[in-house]
Write a structure and sequence with these properties.
The protein is built from 28 helices and five strands. It has helices spanning 2-5, 8-20, 31-46, 48-59, 65-75, 77-94, 96-108, 110-122, 126-138, 146-158, 164-174, 178-190, 194-205, 214-227, 233-241, 249-258, 263-268, 303-314, 321-333, 337-345, 351-360, 365-378, 386-402, 409-425, 458-462, 476-485, 502-511, 535-548; strands at 439-442, 448-451, 470-473, 489-493, 522-526.
């Protein structure tokens, strides 16, 4: 049976690697002993905290056996990793036939299956010890005995079978030995066991490890998923509940499907799903690097607590946004997308980039909606316009990640405007506009009409405004707005404080769908009750207009 799987080429590679690694192992060692020694070397070479400690020892001038050993670990870490992989495969193949027989016996004679696994353990197969532990824990083929289960799980761990840490955790937990159970998970996770990372994420989420730190829980869940997608159920849970991560149902559904969870199975364990769950399209999740390792989880910043404090200040009867800003900045630095969304409304420096990170790296719906609305409102609907390009990107992102989530009223209206103008630009909808008009006149209430303006004379400027006086405003800010809109806007207001209503008027112009590019000056007309410009002032205005045309 072994020859069927473990071919001569791989056996030769194993011999060569064992010769290379004679500084670690010797030929007389059993396979289990070799695995245990190499597992320890692998841990030392990949454990960031241990490596840092050894680097400090070397800098301090310490020259002992530990430093020398660590140098060997790092020098041969790739060879160690490869030989470990081959040795585990070799062991599995050697015992494969007997293991298969034991599994078949389980279906008809659980006691005989237990005895078969026990015999495999006596022959030195650590994985069999793990299964014997499972039999004692569940009472399969033998009387249930948690103490015996713990004993055999520990023997399996000592034999180099990292997955046994997960069974050891559950047995210790059932025996009421919570601290030991968490320690078992830490040991298993230290050996990159996905199931241990997943269980540790659940314990952290419940407040039983790392102080319940939401960022740490999210990191542990992502690490479990990265090691084995079938261990992604906790990541799915955090995406569906909004713990640290934003709620992204498409990501959650992908994780649950990889973990073999159905809707019925999730509801059976009291996970609340939206009514539209069946319509959600699964999408493989993406998220940024958390900047954490298992050794740096203790004492890591918890952004959820920071955001809670900020919200208390922001939404108090007397809001104190300035006091909230430091909390939001720190929460953003710790990677929480909700803080990135809040940064925009607190007008924190760099908030635009924070908002983009919340959308691009986390799939945060609030960030995506805000970006989509903002870019589409400022877009000039011409091919190549950067605002339009970004508007298309974020509306499409919303469709890909959150298509089943109903839009809020303001978002739905913005999307309707965007779709209408995009259809017109692409020729998918016929435009009913006055081709002779070259400007838009806005009234105080935000309504507008397209007009023909003769920009060559003051009389031509006055005509569409139906007034005798004209004031030209040409500040840098207004010229920038004109550039963004892509057409000249003629405004007509009924008070000197027209600047207070500039945003509404610009918005109305943008919604019109009419685009004429003309100069950098925004022309404004005023009613008769506004003090007129005298002749010398009109001359200055005309000179100003000529300078900008």
């Amino acid at each position: 049976m072994a020859d069927k799987f473990f071919n001569a080429k791989k056996a030769k590679e194993m011999k060569e690697l064992e010769k290379t690694l004679e500084c670690f192992i010797s030929p007389e060692m059993s396979t289990d002993t070799k695995i245990k020694v190499l597992e320890n070397s692998f841990w030392r070479a990949h454990h960031a905290g241990y490596c840092d400690y050894m680097a400090g020892q070397r800098m301090a001038g310490v020259d002992d056996g530990q430093v020398y050993q660590h140098d060997l670990d790092c020098k041969y870490k790739y060879e160690v990793e490869r030989l470990l992989e081959i040795l585990h495969e070799f062991k599995s193949d050697v015992y494969a036939e007997d293991w298969q027989r034991a599994e078949e016996l389980l279906e008809t004679d659980s006691k005989a299956a237990f005895e078969a696994w026990l015999e495999l353990f006596r022959r030195g197969y650590a994985r069999a010890s793990n299964t014997v532990g499972w039999c004692y824990r569940t009472g399969s083929g033998v009387d249930a005995n948690l103490d015996k289960a713990i004993e055999y799980y520990k023997l399996s761990v000592d034999g180099g079978y990292a997955y046994a840490y997960n069974g050891l955790y559950w047995t210790l937990k059932e025996a009421g030995r919570q601290d030991e159970a968490i320690n078992a998970l830490l040991c298993g996770a230290g050996l990159d066991d996905a199931a241990c990372f997943e269980a540790l994420a659940a314990e952290c989420g419940d407040g039983n490890a790392f102080g319940g730190n939401s960022r740490v829980a999210a990191y542990l869940a992502t690490r479990a998923y990265e090691l084995d997608e079938e261990c992604g159920s906790m990541l799915g849970y955090y995406y569906v509940t909004g713990r640290f991560f934003p709620v992204v149902y498409s990501y959650a559904k992908y994780c649950f499907e990889q973990s073999n969870f159905t809707r019925e199975g999730l509801e059976a364990i009291n996970i609340e799903l939206p009514e539209f769950w069946d319509a959600v399209e699964p999408v493989k999740p993406q998220y940024p690097d958390f900047g954490l390792t298992l050794d740096t989880c203790e004492g890591a910043v918890d952004p959820e607590e920071l955001v809670r404090r900020a919200e208390e200040l922001m939404f108090a009867d007397q809001p104190d946004n300035e006091a909230a800003k430091p909390y939001i900045r720190e929460a953003v630095a710790a990677g929480m997308s909700r803080a990135m969304y809040y940064s925009y409304f607190l007008d924190i420096e760099g908030c635009e980039d924070m908002l983009i990170n919340g959308a691009n790296k986390y799939g945060d719906l609030d960030c995506i909606d805000l970006l989509a609305k903002t870019f589409s409102d400022f877009a000039t609907y011409k091919i190549g316009n950067i605002y339009l390009t970004n508007a298309i990107r974020y509306w499409n992102m919303r469709k890909r990640l959150h298509s089943s989530v109903p839009m809020a009223k303001g978002t739905a209206e913005a999307y309707e405007r965007y779709s209408d103008r995009l259809d017109r630009m692409l020729g998918r909808k016929e435009q009913d506009i006055d081709r002779d008009a070259n400007a838009i006149k806005l009234t105080f209430d935000g309504s507008f009409e397209r007009v023909k303006v003769d920009f060559s004379s003051l009389e031509g400027l006055r005509a569409p405004l139906d007034c005798e006086r004209v004031n030209a405003i040409s500040t840098e800010k207004l010229r920038g707005l004109s550039d963004k809109l892509g057409f000249t806007v003629v405004m007509y207001c009924d008070e000197r404080g027209m600047m207070k209503h500039l945003n509404e008027n610009v918005m109305a112009a943008d919604l019109s769908g009419y685009e004429v590019i003309f100069g950098d000056v925004i022309i404004c007309g005023f009613k008769d009750d506004y003090a007129p410009l005298y002749k010398d002032e009109l001359d200055e205005v005309w000179e100003l207009l000529e300078a900008f045309q």
